[in-house]
Amino acid sequence: MSMKQFFSLFLLLLPIIVFSQDNNGSISGEVRDAITKQPLPGANIVISGTLFGAACDDKGYYVIKNVAPGKYSLKASIIGYESSTNSDVVVSPLRNKKISFELNSSTIEMNEVSIQSDYFARPAENVVSMRTLSPEEIRRSPGSAEDIFRVMQSMPGVATAGGKSAQLIVRGGSPDENLTLLDNIEIYNPIHFARTGESMGIISIVNPALLEKVDFLTGGFPAKYGDKMSSVFDMKLQDGNKELYNSDVNLNIGGFGVMVDGPLIDNSSMILSVRRGFLDVLTSMMGKPAAPRYYDAVGKITYDIDANNRLSFVGFYYIDQIDKLGTTKES
Fold first, then answer.
1. Spatial separation of the C-alpha atoms in residues 17 and 144, rounded to whole Å
2. If phi over 0 gives left and psi between -120 and 50 gives alpha, with beta otherwise, what is residue 215?
3. If you average pLDDT over residues 9-35, what whole number do you get?
4. How high is the mean pLDDT of the chain?
5. Hey, what domains does the chain have and what are their CATH numbers?
6. How confident is the model at residue 325, as a pLDDT?
7. Do residues 214 and 275 make contact, with C-beta atoms less than 8 angstroms apart?
8. Which of 3, 23, 26, 73 could be stapled to 48 by a disulfide with Cβ–Cβ 3.0 to 4.6 Å?
9. What is the structure's pLDDT at 19?
10. How many CB atoms lie within 10 A of CB 282?
11. Are strands 310-324 and 268-276 parallel, antiparallel or unpaired?
């Protein structure tokens, strides 16, 4: 092959090479102590089966760049702590995936048995009737319309309040006996169109794409959750990306939604989701007299004051409306 032919071939392949590099994503997050919530500088983050990895800075923050799109297993480890693995990390093109870890301390002794944690961590105080879900598990759950409450309806000991309702009846108790938390904030009515004493409620007010994890306890839950008798539904919002802006548009049976997240000023990030249901459009097409319409917005702003202190602002707002058409009877 002559030099001219080689140069021409290189020019033809150059856009493909550049495109493949620019099409990669990235992974970022934090590693903290599970008890004190303090950052763990120097913790190692490795993508299993690859040579990609990173070490945390003095704030416990890490970034792994130029990761090809796909599904990976991510492992966090540091001396003096039990390692932790997240085996359900999905990297999308040109997007940053935020994965954070909380590690439990361990004692290292020579010539003794070494105990390692499993992939799915379960706190010692929550040993009975507990299930933890990730956003990917919620998204893949069949027949749930990507709604977290409908996913839990398939668990043992959980019944529905009707085929059209997303409310949960746990161990025979009323839906009012369930405790719902969003970043430790109690939500008294977490489902659209839910009414006390009625088998109503269509879909959750929280977009599951915002969640970092969900803990669902149906019995034996710790005293810190108060006096609720049936279950505890503990949702934790993820923090926004500190590296770049992400946007996501979603359309399913639950409605149309837009989610954005990214950095703000130095040491701060935001994440916001806005949704609108289109049940009113469906009922109008079917000629039904009632047109239910709902909107919801959930957001979080996080600011790192220093390596040991963090300030978070969480807010949510939703509107439920039902328009009814009819005729007036003349006397």
1. 40
2. beta
3. 68
4. 80
5. 1-121 (2.60.40.1120)
6. 67
7. no
8. 73
9. 42
10. 13
11. unpaired
Mean pLDDT for the stretch of residues 66-88: 92
For strands 25-33 and 101-103, give the pairing: parallel
pTM of this prediction exceeds 0.70: no
Cα angle, residue 36 at apex, residues 33 and 38 outer, rounded to 5°? 60
Residue 252's identity, in one-letter code, is: N
Model confidence at 13, pLDDT cuts 50, 70, 90, reads very low
Question: How confident is the model over 281-307, as a mean pLDDT?
Answer: 83
Do 178 and 218 touch, CB atoms closer than 8 A? no
Strands of the sheet with 185-186, listed across from one edge: 130-133, 211-217, 231-237, 178-182, 185-186
Region 306-318 average pLDDT:
88
Mean pLDDT confidence for 74-87: 92
Q: Please classify residue 267 by burial: count the beta carbons closer than 10 Å to its beta carbon, then call 0-12 exposed, 13-18 middle and 19+ buried.
A: middle
Alpha-carbon distances, residue 194 vs 161, 168, 251, 261, 310 (angstroms): 11, 11, 22, 29, 34
